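Sample pair:
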Amino acid sequence: MSVIADQSALELHRATLANGLRVLVVPDPATPVVEVSVHVDVGFRSEPQGRTGFAHLFEHLMFQGSESLEKLEHFRQVQSAGGIFNGSTHQDYTDYFQVLPGAALERALFLEADRLRAPKLTVENLRNQVDVVKEEIRLNVHNRPYGGFPWILLPPVLYDTFPNAHNGYGDFSELEQASLDDAAAFFDTFYAPGNALVTVHGDLSEHGVDGTLALVERHFGDIPARPVPQRPSFAEPAPGAERRQAVADAHAPLPALALGYRVPDPAAEPDAYLAHAMLATVLADGEASRLQRRLVHTDELVTDVSASNGLMGGPFDARDPDTFTITAVHPAEVSADRVTAAVDQELDRLAEQGPGTEELERQTARWVAALHREDDRVMFRMLGLGARELLYGRAELAVELPGRLAALTGADVAAAAARLRSSGRAVLLVEPAAEPAGDGDA
């Protein structure tokens, strides 16, 4: 095991086990609990063609028992220690995490190592979880107003390649055709130890850093090494012109639209990427933001508007390419073209003049305060450290964000607005349907 200590604002200790598993240990005496997460370098952009939704389905399968534990025993072990646990699937990674009292650290490491070594893949578990995922899709997408808007519906308008454009939640017919061999192949390929990162954060006073690393080695070190998949580049050319598509929504009470733009590579151009994130804040965060004042209060063109840098939300949560989105819900008597024209005018104004000093300071303060509030939630702090370490090799980004935000200038935001206006974009229109849709199995 090789160990590298990094003396930064956080005390970061990195290690790599002989089987390739990366380890990040972050002691924090102010945190009264310990958190353990496993980030696996596979998200829905990596799932095989013809198996849409498989990354998310596999997240479910990882909670169905393991080599040593029956189904639900993992749940009981965590809850009996007073802990919480969960997992989530993103564009480029899947995470699993536990938050427990410090005395239960070894229990958490055992549980995560046991299922990373050998989850219980059976036909019964597979069929059961396919049904669970289908019900989740019905609840969150098919039978819900604006379901899948925009993260499922917008990518196929903005992107051309399967990894970037397909539905990460999954197509019912493809989920139903998934076999146990498919599940075993997915695990063998993507859940190799060398394709994962373990993060331990919080109260490590009982074991110390060296003792914690020894515990990680004890529980994860004997997982056999397997070949690590070569992650392909998902880069594709940005659209050179506007692309437009309309979809019907039987549950939507009002029309809606989403604008999608490509953003700079967060790894190669982190400050330009972050300027786009600040642009989203200036446009739509708070009642005093540009689009809230113009579209909601002054012109009364929309009932709701939002902007986001990143398809799945928060900053630095995916590799390149990623998406800047502006979404709005508007009355039926207001055309989508009127809304997009007003958005374009605000972007042009920002591109020419940039935000005012007071405006930029206000929005920076709002965002930095939100980051600090989120950082107070130890689960989010750990997940942010692990995700950025896995994606970019720089967990430090999690603590650098407030300083990087404060360093942005009005000219940086103006350049981001100009970049959006100079490139092609996707326009997704959601139209209330006259007839209710079917049960969503198609």
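Residues 2-8, 437-442 have pLDDT under 50 and may be disordered.
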